[in-house]
Amino acid sequence: SPPGLLLLTSFLLHVEEGRASPTQLVCDSRLIQKYIGEAKDMETRVGQCQALPTLGCPAVLPLVDFSLQQWKSKSSESKRREILCDLALLVGAAAGAQGQVTQECGARQLGQLYRHANSFLLLLQTFGWEAGPWEPGCSPRSEEQTHVTSIFLTYRQLVQGKLRFFFHDLAKDSCK
To answer: What number does CATH give the domain 28-128+136-174?
Structure first.
């Protein structure tokens, strides 16, 4: 879809600014640290927005906590699929919340989170994987939340946790 292509292109251009390619995203740990920092900044900024409404239609968020022991025992492909499921749910939650938050500060932060999460989603979908393209239809563990800030918390935890460890694992194999 053209909007998806536009987001992927903008993400790759964003990565290009740092003179990096998708492989370098994995190989240069400074980039994932940059995205963790951006996730923390978005979470802080949305916390500073005045009078954020409670969501009338709760956001369905993935439960992104995980056991490092179990995580290490999974294949790269199953990790990728799990993260894609989490990101798809998060992107949907951000989009749904955007329709409910009219306040400028919150809406702006939700738009930024949506773009970042969707960029990771598109990037992981287009990485060169042997197992073929990702197919929707997964059902990650989830919970309903009515606070906008919980969407940002979940995104930060996902980037800081599963995504960071996933990229670290890929770096061991790809960045000799």
So the answer is: 1.20.1250.10
